[in-house]
């Protein structure tokens, strides 16, 4: 019922005492390889909650691609739409120092080869999906093609990350546009003159989406549509690692909307999922089952 269109990356993480300066070599700890990328994260998060979830993405014909496919299948994601080949699997090279500060290089690789033609070839799944969720770690033209091929009555959810200005055609399709504080500021650009998320939500709504959700980390979220704005409280937890919380939130929200929930109810559920995700390390490894969300 849920189709995620987006990225799949291998996150290669090395802990270091100090991140290297130009021309410098430093020794780090053992390499850790984690399945990541916003598309794959969302698909795994939704499937773990019990949603019937498919992913349209592209990985390389290499070990990282197989690692991602294994992780997706283990979570129960339908991987028929995960295309293989054309470029190496997308990779994020991450160094983390003891204070938690990191330096990251991303090679989009196969993600940059997920093209509009791939979307047209997947018209069958697209037409059969009640909710379609996308992010921006794939080419924008590909997201535009998704919007043009939505089935009548299906719902489009976009997390504009990494953030950039968006064409009107994409904005008009979003229901909701879902973004964190940083993403909201970038999407608004010069129009962002206030520090109040309620102002951002109003300004964003005026650009065409039918609804907007601003996620506010430990402060929960804000939902806005034609009928007004509402705060969604967060759940108090001991946060261990917030990596991938936004992806879990978006996946849960998209799934609940597809199941017929209203925006505020879907966001309240998503806030519980996001809270559960920050209580454990990692992204995909941290995502809860529906039972774990109930127990929170
Ligand atoms: P992103 O990961 O995209 O930056 P946020 O940090 O806003 O997104 O987190 C997404 C959602 O996850 C929040 O709206 C909130 O519901 C939940 N969440 C994130 N951090 C915490 C936290 N420290 N405590 C409780 N809930 C959290």
From TrEMBL:
Residues that coordinate or bind K(+): 241, 243, 277, 280, 282, 286
Binding-site residues for substrate, renumbered to this chain: 9-11, 37-41, 137, 247
Reported function: Catalyzes the phosphorylation of ribose at O-5 in a reaction requiring ATP and magnesium. The resulting D-ribose-5-phosphate can then be used either for sythesis of nucleotides, histidine, and tryptophan, or as a component of the pentose phosphate pathway.
Annotated metabolic or biological route of this protein: Carbohydrate metabolism; D-ribose degradation; D-ribose 5-phosphate from beta-D-ribopyranose: step 2/2
InterPro entries in the cross-refs: Carboh/pur_kinase_PfkB_CS (IPR002173), PfkB_dom (IPR011611), Ribo/fructo_kinase (IPR002139), Ribokinase (IPR011877), Ribokinase-like (IPR029056)
Keyword Thylakoid: no
Means of activity regulation: Activated by a monovalent cation that binds near, but not in, the active site. The most likely occupant of the site in vivo is potassium. Ion binding induces a conformational change that may alter substrate affinity.
Swiss-Prot/TrEMBL keywords: ATP-binding, Carbohydrate metabolism, Cytoplasm, Kinase, Magnesium, Metal-binding, Nucleotide-binding, Potassium, Transferase
E.C. number(s) listed in UniProt: 2.7.1.15
Active-site residues, as the UniProt record annotates them: 247 (proton acceptor)
UniProt-recorded name of the protein: Ribokinase
Description of how the protein assembles with itself and partners: Homodimer.
Family: Belongs to the carbohydrate kinase PfkB family. Ribokinase subfamily. Belongs to the carbohydrate kinase pfkB family.
GO biological process terms on file: D-ribose catabolic process
Cofactor(s) needed for function: Mg(2+)
Cofactor descriptive note: Requires a divalent cation, most likely magnesium in vivo, as an electrophilic catalyst to aid phosphoryl group transfer. It is the chelate of the metal and the nucleotide that is the actual substrate.
Gene: rbsK
Domain of life: Bacteria
This protein's GO CC annotations: cytosol
Domain Carbohydrate kinase PfkB: 1-289
Catalytic activity: D-ribose + ATP = D-ribose 5-phosphate + ADP + H(+)
UniProt KW Kinase keyword: yes
Species name: Streptomyces argyrophylli
């Amino acid at each position: 019922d849920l189709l995620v269109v987006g990225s799949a990356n291998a996150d290669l993480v090395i802990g270091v005492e100090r991140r290297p300066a130009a021309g410098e070599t430093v020794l780090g700890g053992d390499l850790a390889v984690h399945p990541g990328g916003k598309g794959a994260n969302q698909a795994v998060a939704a499937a773990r909650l019990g949603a019937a979830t498919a992913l349209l993405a592209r990985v390389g014909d290499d070990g990282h691609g197989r690692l991602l496919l294994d992780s997706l299948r283990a979570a129960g994601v339908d991987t028929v739409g995960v295309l293989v080949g054309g470029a190496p699997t997308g990779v994020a090279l991450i160094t983390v120092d003891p204070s938690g500060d990191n330096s990251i290089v991303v090679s989009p690789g196969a993600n940059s080869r997920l093209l509009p033609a791939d979307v047209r070839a997947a018209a069958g799944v697209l037409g059969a999906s009640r909710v379609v969720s996308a992010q921006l770690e794939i080419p924008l033209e590909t997201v535009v093609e998704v919007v043009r091929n939505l089935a009548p009555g299906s719902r489009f959810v976009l997390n504009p990350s990494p953030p950039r200005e968006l064409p009107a055609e994409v904005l008009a399709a979003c229901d909701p546009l879902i973004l964190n504080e940083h993403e909201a500021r970038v999407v608004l650009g010069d129009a962002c003159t206030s520090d109040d998320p309620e102002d951002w939500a109003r300004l964003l709504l005026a650009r065409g989406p039918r609804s907007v959700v601003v996620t506010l980390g430990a402060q929960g979220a804000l939902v806005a549509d034609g009928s007004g704005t509402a705060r969604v409280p967060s759940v108090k937890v001991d946060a261990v690692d917030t990596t991938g919380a936004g992806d879990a939130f978006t996946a849960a929200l998209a799934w609940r909307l597809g199941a017929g929930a209203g925006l505020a109810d879907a966001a309240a559920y998503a806030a519980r999922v996001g809270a559960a995700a920050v209580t454990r390390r990692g992204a995909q490894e941290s995502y809860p089952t529906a039972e774990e969300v109930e127990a929170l």
